[in-house]
Prior knowledge:
Layout: H1 2-21, H2 31-43, H3 51-57, H4 60-79, H5 85-94, H6 103-127, H7 132-181, H8 186-196, H9 200-213, H10 218-229, H11 232-247, H12 251-308
Amino acid sequence: xxxxxxxxxxxxxxxxxxxxxxxxxxxxxxxxxxxxxxxxxxxxxxxxxxxxxxxxxxxxxxxxxxxxxxxxxxxxxxxxxxxxxxxxxxxxxxxxxxxxxxxxxxxxxxxxxxxxxxxxxxxxxxxxxxxxxxxxxxxxxxxxxxxxxxxxxxxxxxxxxxxxxxxxxxxxxxxxxxxxxxxxxxxxxxxxxxxxxxxxxxxxxxxxxxxxxxxxxxxxxxxxxxxxxxxxxxxxxxxxxxxxxxxxxxxxxxxxxxxxxxxxxxxxxxxxxxxxxxxxxxxxxxxxxxxxxxxxxxxxxxxxxxxxx
Length: 309
């Protein structure tokens, strides 16, 4: 019976991983994809695939895994505590929508992760030969890991993406300055940045530019971008650009000020990290390096003392 349970758990995890890892056409296309399809359909009315052709060409993840996650999401909303759909959608946007997952798919993934860790914890606790307290503790740890792991991985993905955006922001602003001073408008400068660069910040600027092109106000599109990224540097940059747009101030001058401010903040952040290094190095010094030094320095003398007595 235990072998059957382990086999089913392994097969379910493998199917989930294969389905999500397979290159897919997202079931819920992004804003840019929808605009691209509309423009392509306008140019060529025969370019769109029929429903049967689209289902035939869909991958394993689109046909099986994602519908399964959507069905499991209903149970997840009832069984697992979590964020509201709007908060979870914003969290997924800040992480860059990894794997093309939506709110429902992520909730289904949470439920599958909980089931896998529940079964694994039960099997490990059953296999242990220790006391009952050890078995219960092992099972509880596995259960908590199954609940916390998806949100933790999502937060790590968000942190990594924000670090990449912070790293690319000064160079992006410099390219905006060059484009604006060459005579382009701010929207044209963003378009040039999207054309010449790659990365998470470029993706966010491209989405912002697409929203502006379909009629959204520039200030609102920039504010939405700042809310999706959620780092102070972008928030300050968007506020400065919005204020310059409202007051009629030169965009190039504002961009120069923002570039200097962001580079100053980066230097201060690096100095802060460097100032924390001595404290972080204290623990390996005390527990790993000092004992080896003491053995080398005091060991011979201690041996001589033993021989003398």
